[in-house]
């Protein structure tokens, strides 16, 4: 008997091995089809195995019904065709529609799928599907929303994709305006694929029952899945699977016994103690109100922190770009130094040669009269050559000075604000750096640097960065070159500060924008490539130096006043 039992046990272990559609013991393998890329409902995991809510539910049904199943996940349109051709026996997740019911038979629903419209965060507001007309809409090919959108008249500019993830990627990259995807898979894929610029802009545009589907007329197989699903709901296995992947969607029913039990425990004592109930109710309401206020505050603080993190990340990206630009400027300045050095080295030699040779040329001129030299009469060249050599030498010196200013400005800032510096010198260096922009913007630039200006303590490179930003903003505000820019420095004896004032005759600043000029990423020049970081960074630098940056505008121009404290050596002994 023991040997016979062992033989029977071995036979039972051999039967479940996957083989043809039907095993040696007559237990037919049910081929279950599904979408390979529809998480969290059904998908191929990183190990190459079927996973998801549908897969776990099908396995549980197979266990309770004694069925043997084999999963085949692929493209959704291909799976629908495979069901009709008999290559698969059942699709484990298919949204119900009246049109589809003429092709397949549906089980009782095992989930409810809500669909949403996804778009980039900077997309315009959408209130209904009518707003999608005329837009490029990405949708899963052969999915339920493909059929639905065509019926709703949004099929004109539909872009069909192989998977819902492809539809979301198209929107994230800007190749489509909107994507219509089920809300749960959509949020899941946004998180997994890190498509952080996508949000659902219109929720619950359509709700569909989610069922098993078999080929028309296969009532026997459909009844087995219906029966297995009913068993799982009674035993609680369905709730565990549903909650694990999707969370609780269907409200739990309360039976009469539970209701009576709670009535006996809660309602009867409360009726007997009406006065105590009133006091308890007021206390509960107060606690709920306090807790609600706490949660609201926590949510607001979390959103503020998230927004600050996003702004900091964008500032880091911009700072990295500026650092790369500084390296580029340093390299270019170094390359310019080489030819400039040759000019400054060779011009004095040419001047000495001219001084020595002019005696011979003058003697020849006196004896033979005027003659051609370099294509021009010598009587003219004798005056032009000295002036040309002086101009070349002055230009070379100017190039060398500008290159030195560029290298100082672009040099990596590794010092604290402990330099003792002259605001006039910093202002002159900033003007030299942006001199081409000034000449292009205005013919009426003036600068008045008061003499004997007291020194300040700070970082020269950062102060120059502030002044460059202010001058560039003033240039960009001028509508034509006839408008003026005035720069003035002086010492405010009463407040013991040095002051730099920059006044332009530009278009001015709207009153509602004055208070936001130094906010990060606030800009009125987006069409000109403005990032909104220049004045924000400048204000931070000035504050770091203990100074103040003030803006005034009357609608016909802007005045920027920079004040910095005077450095006193005795205070730092």
Describe this structure as you would to a colleague.
By secondary structure, the protein is α+β, with helices and mostly antiparallel strands. It folds into 3 domains: 30-247, D-Maltodextrin-Binding Protein, domain 2 (3-Layer(aba) Sandwich); 259-410, no CATH class; 419-565, Histidine kinase-like ATPase, C-terminal domain (Heat Shock Protein 90, 2-Layer Sandwich), CATH 3.30.565.10. 50% of the residues lie in helices and 21% in strands. It has 16 helices and 21 strands. The chain has helices spanning 2-14, 53-65, 76-85, 144-151, 164-173, 183-193, 219-235, 237-245, 256-272, 274-368, 378-410, 423-433, 435-441, 460-477, 511-514, 534-544; strands spanning 29-35, 37-38, 42-44, 50-51, 68-74, 90-95, 104-106, 111-120, 137-140, 158-161, 178-182, 198-215, 372-373, 376-377, 419-421, 444-449, 456-458, 484-492, 497-504, 548-553, 558-565. Strands 1, 5, 6, 7, 8, 9, 10, 11 and 12 form a 9-stranded mixed sheet that branches. Helix 2 runs antiparallel to helix 8. The chain starts with a helix and ends in an 8-residue tail after the last strand. The relative contact order is 0.06.
Give a quick set of tags describing it.
single chain; 573 residues; alpha+beta; D-Maltodextrin-Binding Protein, domain 2; Heat Shock Protein 90; 3 domains; 5-stranded mixed beta sheet; 16 helices; 21 strands; 50% helix; 21% strand; elongated; disordered N terminus
Overview in brief:
This protein has 573 residues and is of the alpha+beta class. 50% of the residues lie in helices and 21% in strands. It folds into 3 domains: 30-247, D-Maltodextrin-Binding Protein, domain 2 (3-Layer(aba) Sandwich); 259-410, no CATH class; 419-565, Histidine kinase-like ATPase, C-terminal domain (Heat Shock Protein 90), CATH 3.30.565.
